[in-house]
Specification:
CATH superfamily of the largest domain: Vaccinia Virus protein VP39
Distance between the termini: 59 Å
Number of strands: 11
Order of helices and strands: EEEHEHEHEEHEHHEEEHHH
Strand content: 15-25%
Largest sheet: 7 strands, mixed
Radius of gyration: 21 Å
Mean pLDDT: 90
Number of helices: 9
CATH topology of the largest domain: Rossmann fold
Shape: elongated
């Protein structure tokens, strides 16, 4: 598929260093935008040449976009002048997301494959302000996020994001609708924040337990988590320590965190 993105500043070239693959199919763009249901205040991440932006305009109450690529920013300012100061030039990963909007806002975007995990962890950090995310990411990563316990792709991101968001795998996107085509398929996911949810345990400890367990996922929890308790704990008394991390659901990780917290 060939499609030119030009402006007064010249041709907008997809940059490998930024992981850019411009979506060039309006039908899919419309489908992605339609997947966003919380539309009061919306931040689009990495709009590129505005394939989602044009469908967001007029369909959300207030829209801001953040883009790191200067060529794309120039293109957006030329073709979407109505956004004005709502076109933010900067790095999403280094931006204080609490300053984007007053109150809550949703996030949407075709996320670069090379930083999609970082984007989602950033969302998790600011989850009190972000009730919904719709994003296109690498299909393999999307499958990992939606994986159930026991699946070989079930991991850190699955548990941590799944603790605070309901994760939906919406649909698959083929390679041939991008410029340039990536070597892998993509998928669109939706994260919907769990309202009035509390872990019931120390959050920092919970994150530590999950990350430590999966960093040595081939070991049983008895061996991988041995360094996380300082007081007395006879792991042999608890069957959960005979398991590996991918065998535990969210509630079991919470119970494990509660158990380990008693030994500190």
């Amino acid at each position: 598929m060939k499609k030119n993105f030009t402006s007064d500043s010249g041709y907008v070239r997809p940059k490998k260093s930024l992981g850019q693959h411009f979506l060039a199919d309006d039908n899919i763009a419309q489908k992605i935008v339609n997947s966003l249901t919380v539309r009061h205040q919306v931040l689009e991440v990495g709009p590129g040449t505005g394939v989602l932006t044009k469908f967001l305009l007029g369909n959300v109450q207030q829209l801001k976009v953040i883009e790191i690529d200067r060529q794309s920013v120039a293109y957006l300012r030329e073709h979407y002048a109505s956004l004005g100061d709502n076109i933010l030039e900067g790095d999403f990963l280094k931006t204080d997301l609490s300053t984007i909007f007053p109150g809550e806002y949703s996030i949407i975007g075709n996320f670069p494959y090379n930083i999609s995990s970082q984007i989602l962890f950033r969302v998790l950090e600011y989850r009190s302000q972000i009730p919904q995310v719709v994003g296109m990411i690498q299909k393999e990563v999307a499958e990992r996020l939606a994986a159930p316990p026991g699946n070989k792709t079930y991991g850190i991101m699955t548990v941590l994001l799944g603790a605070f968001y309901e994760i939906e795998y919406l649909f698959t996107v083929n390679e041939n609708v991008f410029v340039p085509p990536p070597r892998v398929k993509s998928a669109v996911i939706r994260l919907q924040r769990k309202e009035h949810f509390s872990l019931g345990v120390d959050e920092k400890k919970f994150f530590e337990v999950v990350k430590t367990a999966f960093n040595q996922r081939r070991k049983t929890l008895r061996n991988s988590l041995r360094g996380l308790w300082t007081g007395h704990l006879d792991a042999a008394e608890y069957d959960i320590f005979d398991k590996r991390p991918e065998q535990l659901n969210l509630q079991e990780f919470i119970e494990l965190t509660r158990l380990l917290a008693k030994t500190v």
